Amino acid sequence: MVGRLLSNIDKEIRSTSSQLRRQCLLADRAGVLTRLGEFAEAKSQLDQLRLANTGYDASLTSRILLGEGLLCHFAYDIAGARDKFRRAHAISTAVGDKQLKALAAAWLSVNELHFDNIAAAAEKAAEAIQDALPTDHAALARSHLVIADLLNYCGVADEAKRHYDVARQHAVEEGDLSMQSLVLYNYATFRVHRLALQAIAGPIDAEQASLAEMNVASIGTLDHGIGNRSFARLVPLQHGQVLAMQGKWEAALQKFGENIEYAHKESLAREALKALAARVLCHKNLKNDQEMQADLDLARERISDCTDLDDLAIVHHRLHLATADVRPAEADMHRGTYERCVSAFRERQDADLRLIRLRLPVTQFK
Fold it and tell me: What is the pLDDT of residues 347-364, one digit of tens each?
């Protein structure tokens, strides 16, 4: 099942008599295929369209650039994606195509978020919402998702939930099941992340942990139904962390499997490192001494690659728990580090929230 979005595009491609319109729709279709993980087919289609675009039509060129930007984005080439999205945004701005400009702005907001440019991400998301029509579901879904993630990062979970709901509704309206999956994945991921931060202060809430586990499990159910492979290796990392926080050590290990190494190799070091630290705890509690030592050594080696304060706090807290009764000096070092990271992270949350508030549109829920 590929959802109404792809079906509707295919239907319009078959019915249009305009060659240019057909090419634009094929570029849009390539973007959908990319989001469903069909990268080879999407790239082949975009390559053909670029060769056929001998007149450099602005609308088609912008859509090709957007599609190529998506391929870069899902290949974790965020610098390449930024270049493509910016060029698509510039062309659509120059020709006065506000709908395409809104979509490009929405993707630029995603890109700025990957660069950790909080203010720029909020600004571009706000631009997308301002320029989009109420029926521009793709732009609105993406920009509301960015705002939701920003607010969630800043600890404003209830307000973030409203934006997740708006993003999901636009994805539903468009029939974009891959976007529905992404909204669900981001919401569940932040819920797991929030639990991990709460665990630093004390025992986690059992009910919240169960809800997080249900959220994560539901991603796999939806993705299996639509044939989306984008999160196939990432969902188990989230699920495994929730299970570890619940003390379900064996079940957590099964979820981690080979997915930690896959995530590390695929430039997803922050998720891989948090899961690795959780796996250290699993081995400790299962008395797998050799495996624990191997993972502990690996975590020590990789922790220098982690720069996010919240992630560092989570990792050092888990390593503190793992070493507390066997290496007191090392455990004290981890405790001091996670305490400093938490303090600095809370300060940054407050500062970033002020930046976001200044850039959000008055009418946020178009």
Answer: 999 999 998 988 886 545
